[in-house]
Write a structure and sequence with these properties.
Length: 226
Amino acid sequence: MIEELLPDTVVAVEAHGKDETGHTPLYPEEAALVAQAVAKRRREFTVVRSCARRAMEKLGVSPQPVLPGERGAPRWPDGLVGSMTHCDGYAAAALARATDLASLGIDAEPAGPLPEGVLPSVSLPGEADRLRRLAAERPEVHWDRLLFSAKESVYKAWFPLTGQWLDFAEADIEIRTDPDERHGGTLRAALLVPGPLVGGRRLTHFDGRWTARNGLVATAITVPHT
């Protein structure tokens, strides 16, 4: 799912279901981080890092620990940019060479409505209006969950470039449908605060793609060099 949302310069590895067969074990420093966690948390932590190491190998990079840095953002090997996501029954990692992309962010969520009361806390009035129109046109898609996923992907792409927090209200996301794509489309996040400098140019928006199928919604943001 994730791979189809990303350019060819990105390597994505996914894991479906709860079968742990074939997943690489954690490095000791990783294992220490989840030693006291519940089994579900340890499993998700392990599976998504296994995906990340397989992506490293595909890029010709020796597998290494993936440890959290500032605000929990993963620290990637020198020369790589990447993102990880996991939810119940699904995990994915996407990596690219830093010479090919400035940053990227991916997120997957279970298809289903957000818990009551969450949408007003994560959406702007204009976003909520657009979601209502989309729901009237395509009621089979959980647009509120998709918006939440897009906000997560935007943040994951934003933070490595800025080292700063980005509030839900600081990016206005327009989700666009594509008549030629039954299960997906594009999205654009207008940054409502000064964007990062990339190649000497201050960015005003991020672009990405989305899909909704197989019981999941997924989004991806890529930030090219300018």
